[in-house]
Every structure is written in structure tokens, then in C-alpha cells.
Amino acid sequence: MTIIDHSRFIDEQEISRILEANRRPEPQKIREVLAKASEMKGLNLEEVAVLTGISDPSLLHELFETANRIKETIYGKRLVIFAPLYISNLCANECVYCAFRAKNKAVVRRSLNQDEIKRETELLINQGHKRILMVAGESYPKNSFQYVLDSIQSIYEVKTNKGEIRRVNVNIAPLSLEDFRLLKGAKIGTFQLFQETYHRETYHNVHIGGKKMDYNWRVTAFHRAMEAGIDDVGIGVLFGLFDYRFELLAMMQHIRELERVFGVGPHTISVPRLEPATGSDIASHPPHAVSDLDFRKIVAILRLAVPYTGIIMSTRETAQMRRDTFALGVSQISAGSRTNPGGYSDSDHEDDSSQFSLGDHRPLDEVIRDVASMGYVPSFCTGCYRLGRTGADFMDMAKPGDIKNHCNPNAVSTFMEYLMDYASPETRAIGEKLIEEAIGSMQGLAQERARMLVAKVRMGKHDMYC
Ligand code: SAM
Ligand code: SF4
């Protein structure tokens, strides 16, 4: 089967037509779409377009309430926690918005060697992290992809007396089918890749050098990844480059294409907004800046459109924006992040090797305390990936709601592990109370499993999951 035809499944004409037809939707139409979304079966392109046309504050409020209901029904109060690990800022591309672009002389170049990667990993483990998102520019030391494979192995190899990293996701450039197979063999969790913009003309204007200029190579990367057996992929758009309404519809076309070809869509969606970056004008003056209100709207619409796909919020956003979007559909957050290679070892300053400015600088313990004070249960769970519940298998469990009997118990047990091993006394007090409440609100099998796993963790056992 040849699945990598460069067919234009991103159909700009169709998107423009649908957007035009739904520019000013009637309130009744909007309410019909909200009612359909409440069935949690997802939305089609037209319906997504209708929601992007909402401007009336009371209808916006209804959108946010619907998103909140769906989020609470599917994900409950769980929030998965991870940290990015930048291994290298070498890059051969010229993305005009990124500090790592090849010709940017204002950035100090660094690629970590394997010992340095292990040191960074150790520091993340000692903060309490269990999940890492490994990030790199598109150029590897000695021009060898083996560097990426070695780095993943180095991360998995580190064991401290406190623990280990249990899932490595990666955000690196698109690969050939062959290299995707090697990446799969390295036991990655999710392969994450953002199209940046689905609008071809804009894409060509902002990618002016290197391999990344090839739109088709990037937009078909998930086809190759999935053909190579990587079933968890993470999609995303860099908001601010083009009209967010267009991007949302195009992302839906991409998702529906993956569902059509592979029977399953992406595992996660990321919603990065352009942030200031050293040596980039456009990053400070996005041509299609997304307002805070529209940003919340984007998260809410995505929650309705693809209810079972996780939504990731990074530390690009401020603590307040992150808090606001938990209620609208965000299910995973990074915490305590650095975006420069070696940033955890040299944590006193975000130096001029960083990729972009952060909006949330708080250390992990503070983020965990804040999240827990809001009633959200931070989860360090890696159970699904390790038990092979990925891709379509995950979705088959998630859609009828069966996944709750795993996720909820695993969230409280991994949170308890964090509290016992790493938390400050203040965070631990808040967290233990929250765990009791969370178990109290579970039912049946989930409650039974949660009590059993947490009891084992309290007795000093680690890595308890079901
Ligand atoms: N080099 C690989 C690539 O471009 O796909 C992966 C790593 S790149 C560091 C990860 C992501 O950072 C990019 O896909 C882009 O969306 C995001 N990024 C780049 N510059 C940014 C900026 N100024 N603000 C926010 N995110 C940015
Ligand atoms: Fe390189 Fe990725 Fe930055 Fe583009 S976004 S310059 S490819 S690191």
C-alpha cells in the first residue's frame, strides 16, 4: 500500500468556502452545534466553522460551558505533567519566527553530549518528572540521526534513587519512513510535530531556507510515522502566523485524513502561540496575533471538535492563561520548563540560547501546588504507553469511557508517589487532601483500584499502575 501520495488533503478552497458560508452564524445554528458537541462524538468542518463565528458574549459563555462539561466528563480533574528537554539548538532551517534558525548569530549554539543529556535527565527526575518531551533543531552533531536515538536511550538509562523517566516523547523534524522505524524502535511515546501554518503561501513566506521549506514533506510526516508503527502522534499549529479560523479547519482536515487512512487521529493537539524570540521580528509582532479571548475560544472549540484527543498547554503561556484553559479542555501541561540546551543544569538564567521567552517560570513544586489548590489532580502516569494502549487501542477504550477506570486510579497513585518523594510539606498537605477527595468522588472499579494503588504507594512501592 502506498499511502504517501502528496494529495492535497489540505484543501484551501474548501476551507475558504466553509468559512465564508459560516462567517456570521445564527444563534440557533450555534446552539444546534453546541447540542451536537455535547454528545461527545466530535464535529465536522462546517460545525467547527460555525463555532469560530461566535462573537456574542453569551454564546461564547455557552461554548465555554459546553467545553468545560466535556472536559470534566472525559478527563475529570486529571492534568498530565511533563517537561521539555532541549538537547540541541543546532538547526539548518530558516524559520523566521524561531531563535534557532541557522543564520541567527544572536544565539549561542549548543548540542549536549550524552553525559550532559544524562545530567539534565537526572535533574528532571529529581524534581519529580516522569515524562519528557525531547526537543531538537533540525541538524544533528556529525549530521547523524543516530544522535537522536542515542539521546533517547541516554534518557531512559538514567536511574536515580528517586526514580526514572518512564516515557520519552519527541518533537523533532520530519523523518523518512526508515528513520521513523528506528525512532519507533527507540521506544518513544508520542511523535510530536507542528505544521506551524497549514496555509501554503504563508508557510513559504516564513520558511525561507533548509529542508523545512518543503510543505508536503512536513504535512505527510504523520503518514510516514504511522506507517512505521508510531501510533501516537501529536499535531499542532503555531498560532499567530495566519488566521486561526483557517488553521483550525485545516487541522481538522489533517485529523480526518489520518482517521481515514489509519483509523485513528492524533493522540494530542498542541496550541503554541508565537512568543518573542531572540533575533526574530515576526515573533514579537505576529501578523495574525491571537487575542487571549480567541485563544480560549480555540481551546474550547478543539475540545468540542475532537473530544478524545488530549490538548497540551506549554509554559509559553502565563500561569493565569494556563489556569483559565484547564477548565476549557487542556489535559496536559509542561512545568518548570527551560527551552535552552543545558537549561536545567544552568538554571539561574534563561540565556541567549533559548528558543523563545517563557510565560510561566515557576518551578514544578509551585505549579503542582497551584494546580492541586484548584482541585486538579496532577498525573505522572505513563501506564497506557507501557501497557501498549496506544493509537486505536487507546481510542477504543477512551470512547466508551473505559479509560477512566485506568486513568483516574493511575493519576492519584502517581501523584501520591510525587508527594511522598518530592513535594514540599505545603504541597504534600494540599495534595493528600485532594487525593482523598478524588478517590471519594470515584465509583466502582476505579475507586477500588485507586484505593489499592495509593495504599501500595504509601507503603513505599513505586510505579503502581493499572
Ligand atoms: N526543529 C523541529 C521543528 O521545527 O519541527 C522541532 C523543534 S522546534 C524547537 C519546536 C516548535 O517550536 C516548532 O514546531 C515551533 O512551532 C515552535 N516555535 C518556534 N519558534 C517559536 C516561537 N517564537 N514562539 C513559540 N513557539 C515557537
Ligand atoms: Fe529549526 Fe525547528 Fe526552529 Fe525551525 S522551528 S528554526 S526547524 S528549531
Would you mind describing this structure in some detail?
- 47% of the residues lie in helices and 10% in strands.
- The protein has helices at residues 12-21, 27-37, 45-52, 57-75, 114-127, 146-157, 177-185, 200-206, 215-219, 221-227, 244-262, 281-284, 292-305, 319-326, 364-373, 383-386, 391-398, 404-421, 425-441, 444-458, and strands spanning 78-88, 131-136, 159-160, 163-164, 167-171, 191-192, 233-236, 268-270, 310-313, 332-334, 377-379.
- The strands form 2 sheets. An 8-stranded parallel β-barrel has the order 1-2-5-6-7-8-9-10, surrounded by 6 helices. The chain has a two-stranded antiparallel ribbon with strand order 3-4.
- β1 (78-88), α5 and β2 (131-136) form a beta-alpha-beta unit.
- The chain is globular.
- The two termini are 36 Å apart.
- S-adenosylmethionine binds at residues 97-98, 135, 137-138, 171-173, 193-194, 196, 238, 272, 274-275, 277, 283, 316, 355-356.
Question: What shape does the CA trace take?
Answer: globular
Strand content: 5-15%
Strand element count: 11
What is the structural class? alpha/beta
For the termini, the CA-CA separation is 36 Å
Q: Enumerate the distinct ligands.
A: S-adenosylmethionine, iron/sulfur cluster
Compact summary:
47% of the residues lie in helices and 10% in strands. It is α/β, with parallel strands linked by helices. Strand 1, helix 5 (114-127) and strand 2 form a beta-alpha-beta unit.
Please name the defining characteristics of this protein:
single chain, 466 residues, alpha/beta, TIM Barrel, eight-stranded parallel barrel, two-stranded antiparallel ribbon, globular, binds S-adenosylmethionine, binds iron/sulfur cluster
